[in-house]
Design goal:
This protein has eleven helices and 19 strands. The chain is α/β, with parallel strands linked by helices. The structure holds flavin-adenine dinucleotide. Flavin-adenine dinucleotide binds next to helix 1, strand 14 and helix 11.
Length: 401
């Protein structure tokens, strides 16, 4: 079958790599480079990124790692150990140690919550914030986790998403860092597509998608091409805007906003390769130091730290200032350099659909959606993209091949 893929982000390339083995795949990417919000930006000897923090939520064993391996990609993902620590006061605590920071009554409540969450025995109609709110420290910790992992406040995350996230965590474990950063994943996916005979067109913007009963058409400045199937890696909203198909059938996806600050420092301000969650900060949710895994991600003799924060209010400048103040309080007198500040919202958000608001990737028999507007349930970020891609590929293989 001829498959046209609109967008060369992680979602489009992952679908392309898997489908190119048995189909003729053409990928259209409007920018001169591939990877969208999941690739490197070389800057002053550092490998910064267009979006992601060089982290794969379930590391070497998760959904993305499994699909990469199935597609034939050679990516080494180093699992984080510890997964994460929590900065409370001036000390960093492991998750289990947090239980000792609250009084006996709250400790019993927290242990009960953790056990019930693991077993899925919770009220799934409430939010994660409501689930945690009777223990103030638990709510703060929960907020830093959802802020880091989903770019959402705990009150915005439905409990049924959290139950699935917890299940995936217990199944696959915590995050990992790909050697070479995000770009290595993208390079490997594009290598596989080209080796399978697929075509990747960069600098080629798709203007319109038309879908009929048994065919689909992609229109660019160069003209129109016919396909058996079309996969859109654009947001559900944009896909609907440029196509003749109703993509958003029920609830509108709600994009998530965030602020990312890349920091360079000679001093090892973070000494492990997991996440440092920051529950006591105003906006900052956590930081990681991917160069602790792969030295080539930082300038020689320096460390690359990536900080992720929520954007809660519309005044972006003020929000950035609050994050910078958080960082100052956290690192005190240490010597570090702010390398890059990026904000993500509207057309370029952290996720096109915040968790719980994703659309179904199977739009109709000829049009499919991949990417972070069509993630699978409980799939954090790129793991959710992998779940969505997996559903599309399975559907195509079972129904149309
Ligand atoms: C600050 C930040 C931190 C993050 N951290 C992490 C992390 O550590 N781990 C993690 O797993 N995830 C993380 N994420 C999320 C992750 O980066 C994204 O979910 C993922 O990269 C989205 O991939 P995508 O394929 O859905 O979309 P995109 O990357 O947006 O790809 C879509 C592609 O389509 C192209 N396109 C758009 N319009 C057209 C058109 N008309 N014609 C042709 N091409 C077009 C775009 O140029 C783009 O390349 C983070 C995101 C942000 C912003």
């Amino acid at each position: 079958m001829r498959v046209g893929i609109v967008g060369g982000g992680l979602g489009g390339l992952l679908a392309g790599a898997l489908l190119s083995r048995d189909n003729d795949v053409v990928i259209y990417e409007k920018l001169p480079y591939l990877g969208g919000r999941f690739t490197n930006i070389p800057y002053k000897g550092y490998q910064l990124s267009t979006g992601a923090l060089h982290m794969i939520p379930h590391g070497a064993d998760g959904y993305l790692a499994q699909l990469l391996s199935r597609a034939g990609c050679k990516v080494t993902i180093v699992n984080s150990n510890p997964d994460g620590l929590f900065r409370i006061g001036k000390r960093d605590y492991r998750y289990r140690e947090l239980f000792n920071l609250v009084g006996l009554k709250d400790k019993i409540k927290c242990l009960k919550k953790a056990a019930n969450l693991k077993l899925g025995r919770v009220d799934k109609s409430i939010s994660f914030g409501e689930f945690l709110e009777d223990v103030p420290l638990a709510l703060k910790v929960g907020n830093s986790f959802t802020g880091w992992a989903l770019s959402m406040e705990a009150y915005s995350v439905p409990m049924d998403e959290i139950v699935e996230i917890a299940r995936n965590y217990h199944r696959f474990g915590g995050p990992g860092v790909p050697i070479g950063g995000c770009k290595k994943v993208i390079d490997e996916l594009s290598r596989v597509i080209v080796e399978n005979g697929g075509r990747i067109l960069t600098g080629c913007k798709v203007e319109r998608i038309e879908v009929e009963e048994d065919r689909g058409y992609i229109y660019t400045e160069e003209g129109c091409s016919e396909f058996h199937l079309i996969i859109s890696n654009l947001s559900p909203l944009l896909t609907e805007r440029i196509s003749n198909v109703k993509v958003i059938k029920d609830r509108e996806p709600v994009p998530s906003r965030g602020i990312k600050i890349s920091i360079g420092s000679r001093e090892k301000l973070i000494k492990h390769n997991g996440v440092l969650f920051t529950p006591e900060c105003e906006r900052l949710c956590g930081l990681n130091c991917p160069s602790n895994v792969d030295r080539s991600l930082a300038k020689e003799g320096y460390n690359l730290i990536m900080a992720h924060a929520l954007q809660l209010r519309d005044n972006v400048k003020r929000e950035i200032d609050i994050v910078l103040e958080d960082i100052e309080r956290l690192f005190g007198d240490a010597n570090y350099e702010i390398l890059h500040i990026q904000t993500f919202r509207d057309e370029i958000p952290v996720n096109h659909a915040s968790s719980g608001t994703d659309v179904d990737p199977i739009v109709d028999r000829r049009l499919f959606l991949v990417g972070d507007g069509a993630k699978g349930k409980g799939g954090i970020e790129v793991e959710g993209i992998a779940l969505g891609v997996s559903k599309v590929v399975r559907w195509i293989e079972n129904t149309l091949s």
